[in-house]
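User: Please fill in residues for this 174-position structure.
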């Protein structure tokens, strides 16, 4: 699917919406966005469903809704579908009511890891066992990390303890 910008020229009222966004691995890259001219009025839970085009998020601020010259909020909270147990911190933020400009951003800090499987502590691939190397240092897996399985592992078997969300998987194993 293509990335696009949706423009509202006479304000936008979001009453408990579910909004779908396609985001790239860079806040400055090709990302879906809503541009608003006028007032951004929000009430209830603002749910954002993200599709990660590059299976990763870059550090920085993704502009989701931009351009409003005023805003109102009533009982507003934010929700998203990104996995938990991330190495990165992700936060949905909005300008205070009445702000000019008014906006909603996805703020991302930190970067995913680039891990190589060791299996030194068993065969379990989970988010707590230190079975990986990150730049040569023992580490645990976090969702959206890039993972590599190669011939350096002590354990040939890998057991998934639950659903994992790697940014990428690279296998160079004989």
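Assistant: Residues filled in for all 174 positions:
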């Amino acid at each position: 699917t293509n990335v696009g910008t949706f423009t509202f020229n006479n304000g936008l009222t979001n009453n408990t919406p579910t909004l779908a966004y396609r985001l790239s691995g860079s806040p400055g890259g090709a990302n879906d966005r809503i541009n608003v001219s006028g007032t951004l009025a929000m009430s209830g839970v603002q749910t954002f469903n993200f599709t990660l085009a590059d299976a990763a998020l870059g550090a920085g601020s993704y502009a989701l809704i931009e351009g409003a010259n005023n805003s109102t909020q009533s009982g507003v909270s934010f929700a998203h579908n990104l996995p938990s147990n991330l190495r990165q911190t992700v936060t949905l933020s909005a300008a205070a009511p009445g702000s000019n400009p008014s906006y909603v951003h996805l703020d991302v800090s930190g970067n995913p890891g680039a891990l190589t499987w060791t299996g030194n502590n068993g065969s379990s691939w989970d988010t707590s066992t230190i079975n990986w190397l990150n730049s040569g240092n023992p580490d645990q897996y976090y969702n959206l990390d890039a993972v590599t399985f190669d011939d350096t592992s002590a354990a040939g078997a890998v057991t998934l303890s639950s659903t994992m969300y790697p940014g990428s998987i690279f296998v160079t194993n004989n």
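For context: The radius of gyration is 20 Å.
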